[in-house]
Known about the structure:
Elements: H1 9-22, H2 32-40, H3 44-64, E1 70-84, E2 92-110, H4 112-180, H5 185-220, H6 244-254, H7 256-276, E3 282-295, E4 306-318, H8 326-393, H9 398-433, H10 441-445
Antiparallel strand pairs: 1-2, 2-3, 3-4
Amino acid sequence: MPRQRPLPPLRLLPLLLALGASVSLPVQAQSLVDLYDAARSYDATYQSAKSQYDATLAKAAQAKAAILPTAGLTASASQINQDTQLPTAAAKNYNYTAQTTTLAVSQPLYRPANWATYEQGNKSVELAQAQLTAAEQDLIVRVSQAYFDVLASSDSLAFVKSQKAAVAEQLASAKRNFEVGTSTITDTREAQARFDLVVAQELAAENDLRVKSLALDQLVGQPHTSPKPLRAPLVLAELQPAEVEQWVIQSQDNQPSIRQAALALDVAKLETSKAEAGHKPTLDLTGSYTVAQTQDGTSSLPGTSTRGNQAAVGVTFTLPLFAGFSTQNRVKETLALEEKARADLETARRGVAQGTRTAFFGVQSGQAQVKALEAAEASSQSALDANKLGYQVGVRINIDVLNAQSQLFDTKAKLAKARYDVLVGGLKLRQASGVLAASDLQPINSQLAP
């Protein structure tokens, strides 16, 4: 049997890479800031807002062209064949070439509509910046919400598993006690029913975690994300400022939706100025330089090449007199749109104020709920310990222990969810007041487990 030669090292390399890829490496947990940075370069909604901002910058530059000078170069060349019929002489035929080059320049001196368009371009840049800020704040909240949704779902699954282990232990204890005759079959069946219920809850919790994880993966563009949990014990910071009206006042100056509505009103006012400019004259400075030359003469100068230069500078004055009432009706239209923009601004102010108050009281309520649930957790743990001891000495039945266990794990899950809601609620409050920035994620990030 022929001896098989060993594979060369380079041919072994693909095999080694394939084997290495098949080994599942442990997933490294990511912080909130890490996942936000990933989402910022991946999220389609934010990228759309960023592209819109870039497009608006270019469009504003186009509006500036209306107040800058324009220049154009025109050149023409023609071959002329001319037959001349004279009554008293023989017919003449002339062939010559004519060339003309003209450079024309124009500078607007007085065009109110052009200046209004230029100002509108500047306002559109500010408007796009406000839209981009709103998109960035929305991304911060969406990533944070998805991040803590995964943590809350993971906690719920962990609590259900712990409850399942505790119920399984209680079921085994009930079976042993029934076998030795110290308890009835009722305890065993109650424990079995509770165990089956917890198994169903575990399946639902696993599916919920899977769905929440997929949502986070899709948002940040990374598969199998693993958010870092919060460090214990967690200390929730108090609201600063502590008065709701201070948040409302702050929102009126910083909220992107209010800025967008205010800028829309400015643009509407400029549109009215453009419409009113339809009644006003325009004045332009014009200049031209023309070079005209012929070769092989003309009909008047046969056989002689000519060249002529002409320079001209002047002003063009235009006064509109009558346009079929279109200008007057255009002014009426823009004035109505200006009032609409003013009403939209007031609506935005009222809506932001209401949203800011709602977010503030939501955070306050969440902080109170956390404190209440922390006390409830301690009480539930004490109640469980007491019921276990009572069950051992015979003054409590099995269902009492099972109920105490369910109450404890339910309280733990609600407490974890309440803490996450307070953290996300604080970000939503800053978003409602218009001051949310990526740096606001750092205090939360510092409270994550290493």
